[in-house]
Automatic annotation (TrEMBL):
Biased composition (Polar residues): 636-654, 667-682
Keyword Coiled coil set for record: yes
InterPro entries named among the record's database cross-references: ARM-like (IPR011989), ARM-type_fold (IPR016024), CIK-Related_Protein (IPR051177), HEAT_type_2 (IPR021133), Kinase-like_dom_sf (IPR011009), Prot_kinase_dom (IPR000719)
Key words of the record: Coiled coil, Repeat
HEAT repeat residues: 375-413
Matches recorded under Pfam families: Pkinase
PROSITE patterns: HEAT_REPEAT, PROTEIN_KINASE_DOM
Protein name: N-terminal kinase-like protein
Ranges of residues in domain Protein kinase: 1-300
Length: 737
């Protein structure tokens, strides 16, 4: 045993009580110490008798004996850790007072212990009072003070009980009158003292015997039965067993949910499974009114035992988590977390869904290692469960688990399941909740995953047939607007939102307009003051702006020559390789394609970026057209489709100096100009008047369109002539770019 934590001198005898810890097990115990002194033979004899009785009497409501030691100078009695009732009531009064439920169960236990002594052991206690009652850690009352216990017929080996002047007020009146035990039943004296105990529990220390007539704060349900205990006629005082039965009648003081729950827990091992199920269901509703110590030390062990060795199943979860609120973090980790981890591996659907529903009660006690290695691998099975309720609860639980998930589980495994749910799940609410959950866990995703996933996922949600899913997609865009660059907001987000302004559902339209105004305000702020670029976006915004600038530069230069790209600007090289560095059109969560190998995704593809493939292709075509030369764009023909005539030299081979006769002779463009002029002169001779007449009734746009069409036909005709004259290409011939 180690250091003393508490010391209390008992009021009716010399022993002191100490609260200590056992060295062998570390469990707390209480130790009563009686010091032998000269001239105290009678007291020493009573102390030894108390030790003997405590060793031999075993009952749940009698103080439990652990160990003892008798020496010439001292007598040691080791019991379970307890607190004297007087100290317990004082502490409860400082916290607002003991509730009637706690007192009712305590009195039930004391009366039951007294009935055990009188009716089963045929013993008389002779020392019942607040000094003989102790309270354990669970708040249960224990009967002690066995110094004066005697058989019904008396024990000649014990000295006669001598009345202490301070204790005479607790003696029954027939004892004071000298009538002795023949005046009433054998239990008459003990039940009288029981009445005194009840009075002191509710009203405090008893000043005098006559005060028993004043009821004070004794509850009304208990008053009739209390009056029987302190009646003047000893023969009319009830047996402890009958008193207990009367108080347990419907409407009695001992007839309540707290007493019923305790009685069931004492016999839970012999109850039927159906009775256990019903009990645990009702227990959840009653726990809020039960004392905290009782829940921690009495209910919790029974709940853990019922799950570990019984067949209670998921029904114990709700009361278990309610009791867990009373535990310290260390106790929670030690007692409940191991059980929770084991529960997650259960195949019982009821158990799994209860765990997911109650996760907010214990998530703060789970460490990241346990979540990623022992809990998340079992939770993800809920994404593919055939029960929609489990799928929905699994999605909702990710709001709590996401902050504790590692890089792989969060950005890869979880995103893969979310993509499949949003694309394939047949339940609209589940698709909607998936979108909502994604928007809420976006801050925990890494930057690459956000750029790859968010826009594609919310865009897919806006095309969902379920209106709430479309609204969730809009709200997702609004909630994550800080993660989009100005270019993404303008080119990808706003077009998607604008399409929803004509949505059939008004709530979706309203949300779309709000989101559009928010994004437009952001872009207008950037347009008015470009210096706020750093406030609105991150480096991605700058890179996006460089992309568009460099694409304009590429329209007039050879993009294969880095020297022509603004002196080798790093953002230009980023644009040239954008297809391989993440700026491609594929925003899918995964690169998985269909088995046909054509790169086309099925309607149930788990990729979130496939909806944007066509748009991205159009964007690529637009960028490519901007890279054409000005004459080619004007003629409407791409440079790749123009095949130079045989013998034509490259532009770099010509003499660009226009001076001298040689230049006039070798200049290809001058000869082409002469031929074009002569041709125009000939054609104008016969068609000028007709063209003039036709153009009078045409607008400028129609004239331009007509000229382009004529030019296209002329070029096609020339191309056909050259191809026919040239014949098929020969092997080894070089095709000019």
């Amino acid at each position: 045993m180690t250091s003393t934590e508490e010391e209390t001198r008992m009021p009716t005898r010399d022993p002191k009580m100490h609260l200590l810890l056992l060295q062998t097990t570390g469990e707390p115990v209480s130790v009563f110490v009686y010091e032998v002194s000269p001239g105290s033979e009678e007291k020493t004899q009573l102390a030894k008798a108390a030790l003997k009785r405590l060793k031999t009497l075993r009952h749940p409501n009698i103080l439990a004996y652990v160990d003892g030691l008798e020496t010439e100078k001292c007598l040691y009695v080791v019991t379970e850790p307890i607190t004297p009732l007087t100290a317990h009531l004082k502490a409860q009064a400082e916290r607002g007072g003991s509730g009637e439920l706690e007192v009712s169960w305590g009195l039930h236990q004391i009366v039951k212990a007294l009935s055990f002594l009188v009716n089963d052991c045929h013993l008389l206690h002779n020392n019942l009072g607040v000094w003989a009652v102790f309270v354990d850690r669970a708040g249960e009352w224990k009967l002690g003070g066995l110094d004066h216990v005697t058989p019904e017929q008396g024990d000649p080996s014990l000295p006669p009980r001598r009345s202490n002047p301070d204790m005479e007020k607790y003696d029954p009146p027939e004892g004071l009158n000298g009538s002795g035990k023949a005046a009433g039943e054998k239990w008459s004296g003990d039940v009288w003292r029981l009445g005194c105990l009840i009075w002191e529990v509710f009203n405090g220390p008893l000043p005098r015997a006559s005060s028993l007539r004043s009821l004070g704060k004794i509850p009304k349900q208990l008053v009739p039965h209390y009056c029987e205990l302190v009646g003047a006629n000893p023969k009319a005082r009830p047996n402890p067993a009958r008193f207990l039965q009367n108080c347990r009648a419907p409407g009695g003081f001992l007839s309540n949910s707290f007493v019923e729950s305790n009685l069931f827990l004492e016999e839970i091992q012999i109850k039927e499974p159906a009775e256990k199920q019903q009990f645990f269901q009702d227990l959840s509703e009653n726990l809020d009114s039960f004392p905290e110590d009782f829940c921690r030390h009495k209910v919790l062990p029974q709940l853990l035992t019922a799950f570990e060795f019984g067949s209670a199943g998921a029904v114990v979860l709700t009361p278990l988590f309610k009791v867990g609120k009373y535990l310290s973090p260390e106790e929670y980790q030690q007692k409940i977390i191991p059980v929770i981890v084991k529960m997650f591996s259960s195949t019982d659907r009821a158990m799994r869904i209860r765990l997911l529903q109650q996760m907010e009660n214990f998530i703060q006690y789970l460490n990241e290692a346990a979540v990623n290695s022992q809990i998340f691998p079992h939770v993800v099975h809920g994404f593919t469960d055939t029960n929609p309720a489990i799928r929905e609860q699994t999605v909702k639980s990710m709001l709590l688990l996401a902050p504790k998930l590692n890089e792989t589980n969060l950005n890869q495994e979880l995103m893969r399941h979310f993509a499949r749910l949003q694309a394939r799940d047949d339940q609209g609410p589940i698709r909607c909740n998936t979108t909502v959950c994604l928007g809420k866990i976006a801050p925990y995703l890494n930057a690459g995953t956000r750029q790859r996933v968010l826009i594609s996922a919310f865009s897919r949600a806006t095309k969902d047939p379920f209106p709430a899913s479309r609204a969730a997609g809009v709200l997702g865009f609004a909630a994550t607007h800080n993660y989009y660059s100005a270019a993404e907001s303008a080119a990808r987000v706003l077009p998607t939102l604008c399409a929803l302004t004509i949505d059939p559902d008004k709530s979706v339209r309203d949300q779309a307009f709000k989101a559009i105004r928010s994004f437009l305000t952001k872009l207008e702020t950037l347009s008015e003051d470009p210096s706020k670029l750093a406030e609105i976006g991150t480096q991605d915004v700058i890179l996006s702006a460089c992309v568009y600038i460099c694409e304009c530069v590429f329209a007039c230069v050879d993009e294969n020559d880095p020297k022509q790209c603004n002196g080798g600007n790093p953002c230009c090289s980023f644009t040239r390789n954008k297809g391989s560095s993440g700026w491609d059109a594929d925003d899918s969560w995964s690169n998985e394609k269909d088995a046909d190998g054509q790169g086309q995704s099925s309607p149930g593809d788990e990729s979130w970026g496939n909806d944007w493939d066509e748009e991205a292709d159009a964007s690529d075509r637009f960028v490519s057209s901007r890279k054409l030369s000005a004459p080619a764009r004007k003629s409407g023909v791409s440079t790749a489709s123009v095949t130079p005539t045989e013998g034509t030299r490259l532009t770099s081979e010509y003499n660009w100096d226009s001076t001298g006769a040689r230049a006039s002779h070798n200049d290809f463009f001058s000869s082409m100009s002469q031929r074009a002029t002569s041709t125009a002169t000939v054609s104008l001779g016969g068609e000028e008047e007709a063209t003039s007449n036709q153009s009078r009734g045409l607008s400028k746009a129609e004239l331009a369109k007509k000229k382009r069409e004529e030019r296209r036909k002329e070029l096609e005709a020339k191309r056909a002539e050259r191809k026919a004259a040239k014949g098929p290409l020969k092997l080894g011939a070089r095709k000019l770019d």
